[in-house]
Write a structure and sequence with these properties.
The protein is of the alpha/beta class. 40% of the residues lie in helices and 17% in strands. The strands form four sheets. A seven-stranded parallel β-sheet has the order 3-2-1-4-5-6-11, with helices on both faces. Strands 12-9-14 form a three-stranded mixed β-sheet. α5 packs parallel to α6. The relative contact order is 0.15. It binds UDP-4-deoxy-4-formamido-beta-L-arabinopyranose. The site of UDP-4-deoxy-4-formamido-beta-L-arabinopyranose (WQD) has 19 residues, from α7 and β8. Keywords: Carbohydrate metabolism, Galactose metabolism, Isomerase, NAD. Belongs to the NAD(P)-dependent epimerase/dehydratase family. Pathway: Carbohydrate metabolism; galactose metabolism.
C-alpha cells in the first residue's frame, strides 16, 4: 500500500515508516520539522534502503496536503501522527494544542476524502481513559473529553470527529490507535527520540543523566499507592508500536475501530531506572522529588483486543527498550543536531 505519514519524520513516524517499508509498503513523509529534523527521514532511507520522500510542510494547510496528493498520490491510507504532545505544555498553551491537533485532522480528512481516501489511521493516546477504577484499560473503558489537559482532550475530540465522519462515509476505514508510553529506539541506533531542551518524559531524561548532560534523575513522588510507591506506566517499545500500525493498516475494514497499543505489563519509575542501569552496567544518581501536578499513580492497558483482532502483541521488554535507547543515545549524543 502507498501511505502518507503526517508527522512522518518524528519519533513514532520514522519507526512506523521503517516498519511499513520493511513490510513492502511505500511511504511519503509530510512533516513541518517543528519537533524533528530532515536527517531523520534520511535515516529511514539508510535503514531500509528504500525511498522515504519528505515533504516539509504543514499538515493543517489544505493546499499543502493537496500538493502532496498531486505530486505523490494516490494514497491508500493516511497515518496521522502530526501533533503536539507535551501534556504540561498543553496546559499553558491550549489554543496552540487544539488548533494544531484538530486542524491537522480536518485538513487531512478534507483533502483525503476529496481524493477518494479509503483508510485513515489516527495516533491517539491511553490518556483518554478517565476512570482509574477501570484499570487495566480496555477499549471499552470510560473515556472523557473532561481530562486533565488540553493535549489529551484534543486527542479525545479527534476521536469523536473521526467516529462521526466514519459514520457518514461508508467505504472509509478509520483506525484509532491509543498509545501508552512509547520508549526505546530502532536497534540500529540511527533513529530515536530527540526531544528539544529538558525532556518531560522519563526515558529521555534518564538517558540524558546516563550520558552526563543531566545530573540526576528526579523521581516525581514515591508515595503513590503502588508496589514501590512510584508511578506505574505501560511502556511500549516504539518498534512494537510501529509494527502495530502496519497490521492495523493492513487489516483495516470500513467503519470505526479502536485499539490499545501497550504491553499490559506496567513498570514503575524505579523499575525503569533499574532497567536502564542494567543496560548501561552502572548505577544512576536519583533523587526523590515532589509529585508532578497532573500525574496519576498508574495507567496501563489490557492489550487483548489488538491480539485477538489484529494478531498483534508487544514482543519487546523494558530492558530491550533501555538497551536500544542507549544505543541511539550513544550514537547520537546531540540527537539529530549532528
Ligand atoms: C512517566 C512516569 C512520572 C519524568 C506521557 C506523555 C503523554 C502520553 C503518555 C502520548 C510518571 C515519572 C517522569 C521524570 C519522573 N504520550 N517521571 N521523572 O506522564 O505517563 O505521559 O506518555 O500520548 O502525552 O506525556 O509519561 O514519561 O512523563 O512519566 O519520575 O523526570 O515517570 O511521574 O510516573 P506520562 P512521563
Amino acid at each position: 500500500m502507498r501511505v502518507l505519514l503526517a508527522g512522518g519524520a518524528g519519533y513514532i513516524g520514522t519507526h512506523t515508516a521503517v516498519a511499513l517499508l520493511d513490510a513492502g509498503h511505500e511511504v511519503v513523509l509530510l512533516d513541518d520539522l517543528s519537533a524533528t529534523s530532515a536527517i531523520a527521514a534520511e535515516r529511514v532511507q539508510e535503514i531500509t534502503g528504500k525511498p522515504a520522500p519528505l515533504v516539509i510542510g504543514d499538515a493543517k494547510d489544505d493546499a499543502t496536503v493537496a500538493r502532496v496528493f498531486d505530486e505523490y498520490g494516490p494514497f491508500d491510507s493516511i497515518i496521522h501522527l502530526a501533533a503536539h504532545k507535551a501534556v504540561g505544555e498543553s496546559t499553558q498553551l491550549p489554543l496552540k494544542y487544539y488548533a494544531n491537533n484538530l486542524d491537522s485532522t480536518f485538513a487531512l480528512l478534507r483533502v483525503g476524502l476529496e481524493r477518494g481516501l479509503k483508510s485513515f489511521v489516527f495516533s491517539s493516546t491511553g490518556t483518554v481513559y478517565s476512570d482509574p477504577a477501570d484499570l487495566p484499560f480496555t477499549e471499552e473503558s470510560t473515556t472523557s473529553v473532561d481530562l486533565s489537559n488540553p493535549y489529551s482532550k484534543s486527542k479525545r475530540m479527534n476521536e469523536k470527529v473521526l467516529e462521526d465522519v466514519a459514520a457518514v462515509t461508508p467505504d472509509l476505514a478509520v483506525t484509532v490507535l491509543r498509545y501508552f508510553n512509547p520508549v526505546g529506539a530502532h536497534a540500529s541506533g540511527l533513529i530515536g527520540e530527540d526531544p528539544a531542551g529538558i525532556p518531560n518524559n522519563l526515558m529521555p531524561f534518564v538517558s540524558r543523566v546516563a550520558i552526563g548532560t543531566l545530573s540526576e534523575v528526579g523521581i516525581f513522588g514515591d508515595d503513590y499507592d503502588t508496589p514501590d510507591g512510584t508511578g506505574l506506566r505501560d511502556y511500549i517499545h516504539v518498534v512494537d508500536l510501529a509494527a502495530g500500525h502496519v497490521v492495523a493498516l493492513e487489516q483495516a475494514q470500513p467503519g470505526y475501530a479502536v485499539y490499545n497499543l501497550g504491553t499490559g505489563e506496567p513498570v514503575s519509575v524505579k523499575g525503569v531506572v533499574a532497567a536502564f542501569e542494567r543496560a548501561i552496567g552502572r548505577e544512576l544518581p536519583v533523587n526523590i522529588k515532589p509529585r508532578r501536578p497532573g500525574d496519576v499513580a498508574a495507567t496501563y492497558c489490557d492489550p487483548a483486543k489488538a491480539a485477538r483482532e489484529l494478531g498483534w502483541k508487544a514482543q519487546l521488554t523494558i530492558d530491550d527498550a533501555c538497551r536500544d535507547y542507549w544505543t541511539w543515545q550513544t550514537k547520537n549524543p546531540q540527537g539529530y543536531n549532528v
